[in-house]
Structures are given as structure tokens and as C-alpha cells.
Amino acid sequence: MRSTRTPASPRRGRRRTLLAVGGLVAALALTATACGGSGEDTAGGEPGATASQAGGNADGGVRIPSDIADQLKEHGIDVDDWKDGGWQDWDKDKWLSEAKDFVNPVIEGLWKPERMQSAKEADKTVSTKDASAGQGVSDPEPAPVEATAEKTPYHQNAAPVGKVFFDSPEGPSVCSGTVIKDVNHPGKSNLVWTAGHCVHAGQSGGWYRNIVFVPAYNDLGKSEAELGSANATEIAPYGNWWADWASTSNGWIEGGSQTGGAGAAYDYSVLHVQPEQGAKSLEETVGAALDVDFSAPSAAEAREMGAWGYPAASPYNGLKMFKCIDEPGRFSLSPSLPTMYRIGCTMTGGSSGGGWFRVVDGETKLVSNTSIGPADNTWLAGPQLGRDAQSLYENMSETYGGR
Predict the structure, then answer these.
(1) What CATH architecture does domain 10-400 belong to?
(2) Mean pLDDT over residues 115-130, rounded?
(3) Burial class (CB in 10 A: 0-12, 13-18, 19+), 213
(4) Average pLDDT score over residue span 77-86
(5) What is the pTM of this model?
(6) Do residues 392 and 401 touch, judged by C-beta distance below 8 A?
(7) Interior CA angle at 347 toward 230 and 232, to 5°?
């Protein structure tokens, strides 16, 4: 899930990359507060966006708005049965694609540390045939860039980055995500950016379930053995945040596939989340959020991009945060589809949905997210975020941001 472009001059290209690392890391770190976290305090695409709603919690239980409860009943879903395990029923006749069928009531305590560690990566491995379809538009493959581990504690060095956990028919799964600003609710955002394939199966199915965002997961970067004795604050320093609203593009819903497919160029999503416990907003709790750059700059204009995430497939295990910095190139799956960005990076599945950042006038902004990559894990590709992605974001902010 990455790409590689050999610079005209290896020495010059390497120096530019190192300089970019310093700039991106410094800017990203500056968005975070210096204090520690506490779990106690805690649809534009092609040709339009789709948003969905879900339930909430109250006093440790499940609180379902009346209109959502009616939807559940309409589809033969009992709220109490859902909470008690009915969500595990993946009857294909009921696993529908329409936004109204997204159901995500809080099930407090479901995502225990052990269950989080068992989650498998939700990667999209592009086929050689698909990768070659855009020849003549795509730039040459970039040279692989070895992913480097983010400094710990994560809440001080990359506070907006976290993991997205969800249940699919295959079992517990994991992606990466980023806390983003909410233009209509400054300083109090509850929005998270990730990939469309981390919330919806695309043309082969419907919405995933039990979607949770955990910012700064495994804050100290502990090993699997060390996590056995870690406390809850070390594993989830800001607690678990359940998606009560979700949106992705119609382009992903209608064209997304196991290899990304025609939906890859529209493979992005915005979540509106709420804390499993606590009342403060996500941005207030984490102390950080990033603006999204919807200008869709060309690869040449962007110059350098950095991808952050939690790779989970071998040789990684999903417990630690990594990053790659590279000069982006163009990647095309078809002349009829929008061009994507591609960078060299050895991160594997699990990094899907993780934000791609660039520095604009000294400020780090999210400019894309990890979508697809090849089986040999030498590069990553992500969608350009233009007018359609901005419409999806604005709809989420205006319609659901204040809820």
C-alpha cells in the first residue's frame, strides 16, 4: 500500500525528504497539548456523498434516538438483542448498502484491550493488472521508503492520529484515522477522517459495525508482552470514541472492491464520534485537530507528503505508530478516474485510512489518506481530496457536528 519514485538525483532527493521529515514532524507535534490524556475525561464522492446515523449511550447503556429506533424496528432489529450480540448477525439479506442502515449504538466494554489486539488489518491490495491500467498517466513507481517509528508518547508527538476499530463479517478489524477540525464547531470537533473501506464494504456489502476511534492508541509504544500489564490509560489514553454518524462517498459505495476498484479514487470517510465515557469533545480531550486541505494540489505542487498510521500486517503487528515521508507522484487506475497520489512506503495493512499530511504556510494539514497498495508493500496510494470530499465534510459538519 505505497509507491516509489526514484529522484533524478538520489543525493538531492534524499536530502529533500529528510528536510520534509523535520518540517512535518515539528508541525504535527505542535498541534498537540503537552499534558497527558485520560480515558476518564473523556458523503461527497462521485457523484455525491452519503451520510448515516447511529445510536448513543446513557448511563453505560444504549440510547437510541426515536427515529433510529424506528429504523431498527423496520429492519427487524431489537435494540437490546443488538447490544447483547445481535450485531454479529451478518445476514446478507439484511446487510444493506443504504446509509439509513448504518447502526452503531454504543456497547460499553466491547472493545477491550485483548479484542483490540486481535483485530486484523483491512487492507486493499491492488492487482498488477489494475496498477498497470493507468500507464501513461501514472508516474514511475517510487523507490520504497522504509517506515520509521513515531516517537513516544504519541499524545505529544502525533496526537491527532489513532486507530479505527470495527467489526466486519470476517471479525474484528482495524484501520487508522485522524482527528480533524470542524469548521462549524471551532475547538470542539468530534470529527475523524479515515478511508471509506474502513466503514463500508463497497459494492459487495454494507456498513461495518461497532466502529470506534482510539486516538494515540498504545501511547508509549509498548510491545505485545508489555501491553499485558499496561493500564487502560496507556492503551487508550483518551478513551474509546464511538461513531454515531458516518459518511463516505457514493463513488466508494458503488465502485469499491477488495482491490480498491473504481472506488479507490473516492476512498475516504468522515466519522462523527462520541465518547464511551465523558462529555468533552474529541478535540478538547485530545488537545489537537488538523485542518483538511481540499485544494487537491498536483503531486508536483505538494512536493512532500507524510503518511502516518498503525501498520498491522507482517512485519508489523499494529501496536505501534509509523510514518513515511516522500515526494508524491501521480497514480491512475484508469484514465476515466481521478488521479491519486502515490508515495514510497513500506507500511502494510492497518495503516489504511491513516492521514497524509503536508505543510501549508507552516501549518500541517491533512491532504489525503491511505487507500491501496501492492502486495509487496513498496508504496501507498491515496485519493485527492477536492470539491466532492469537501461537500461530504461540510455536510457532516453542518448536519451532525453539533449533535
Answers:
(1) Beta Barrel (2.40)
(2) 76
(3) buried
(4) 78
(5) 0.85
(6) no
(7) 15
* Residue that the C-alpha cell 508493500 belongs to: 377
Q: Which three cell numbers stand for residue 136?
A: 501513461
Higher pLDDT, 285 or 90: 285
CA distance 185 to 271: 15
Beta-carbon contacts of 144 under 8 Å, excluding residues fewer than 6 positions away, are: 2, 4, 344, 345, 346, 378, 379
Say how many CA atoms lie within 13 Å of 180 toward its Cβ: 32
What is the rounded distance in angstroms from the CA atom of residue 179 to the CA atom of residue 53?
Answer: 19
Kindly list the domain boundaries of the chain, sorted by start residue: 10-400
Q: Could you write out the DSSP letters of every residue in 311-345?
A: --STT--SSS-EEEEE--EEE-S-TTS--EEEEE-
Lowest-pLDDT choice from 77-81, 116-120, 139-143, 301-305: 77-81
Strands (E), 84-160: 120-121, 148-149
Whether the CB-CB separation of 204 and 187 falls below 8 Å is answered with no
Confidence of residue 17 (pLDDT cuts 50, 70, 90): very low
Grid coordinates standing for 390? Answer: 469537501
Q: Which residue has the higher pLDDT, 273 or 30?
A: 273
* DSSP reduced 3-state for 198: helix
Among candidates 220, 201, 90, which has minimal Cα distance to 153?
A: 220
Encode pLDDT of 180-200 as tens digits.
999 999 999 999 999 999 999
